[in-house]
Amino acid sequence: MSAPPRLLEVGELDLAFEPARWAFAERQAASIAAHWVRMTKAKPSLFNGRVLLLGRRGIVTGSDGSATLKGAFFATDYADYLAWEQFGFPGDPVDNCFSMAALRCADGAFLLGEMAHHTINAGQIYFPAGSPDPTDIFGGQVDLEASARRELLEETGVDASEAAIARGWTVVFADRRIACMKLMTLAVPAARAKARIDAHLARDPHAEFTRMHVVRSPRDIDESRVPVFVSAYLRDALAHRSVG
Predict the structure, then answer these.
(1) In the chain, where are the structural domains located?
(2) Fold of the domain spanning 6-239
(3) 165-189: b or e for each residue (b if 16 or more CB lie within 10 Å)?
(4) Which pLDDT tens digits describe the chain residue by residue (244 residues)?
(5) Which end is more exposed in the chain, N or C (fewer Cβ atoms within 10 Å of the end residue's Cβ)?
């Protein structure tokens, strides 16, 4: 049985990129290739690009008491990652560490997107997010805020410059997933933001989201479709929310 998600407030992320070989991908190459064939038959739009996974990590506490998530990413094919996840995370400890744009509105409600039918997680409800990739590497460091900003724009049409962005992060640990939540608050109420984003999605037949969902209270969380790391974050944020 999986352990419940664990939340940690951190002031900074210090995440390097260190090229490395992945024993799982090398040992399971044939199984990964067969798995990819099956997945692309079901979801032809899948693309086997390069993604980043976290090979080592730790929490460092500064003299002021603030925490920093430190670690090092390596690159691998998306097919490797997808097989590793669906095979149950075998092999040496590796984490799928990614950022999410936790989109909050002026009235305190959160906006999440429903994944479209052509995506691997069709029907699930997330904040804008995606696996980091080599375009997120700057000077040997992996910039997860840049990743969150990019995903927000690509998936909703909202530029991060329109939002008030929190300085720190809420990091949610759930099995081999580490979701780094960056709170981004829009200056408009949820109904207005939802209408704008839904109109943007309707114009794009290839959009990753099909529509947006508003979460104002824990009662609005669809536990059957919202991943546990998102649900845990929402419950904590709604319990401690402060609009402004």
Answers:
(1) 6-239
(2) Nucleoside Triphosphate Pyrophosphohydrolase (3.90.79)
(3) eeeebbbbbbebbbbbbbbbbbeee
(4) 578 999 999 999 999 999 999 999 999 999 999 999 999 999 999 999 999 999 999 999 988 889 999 999 999 999 999 999 999 999 889 999 999 999 999 999 999 999 999 998 999 999 999 999 999 999 999 999 999 999 999 999 999 999 999 999 999 999 999 999 999 999 999 999 999 999 999 999 999 999 999 999 999 999 999 999 999 999 999 998 654 4
(5) N
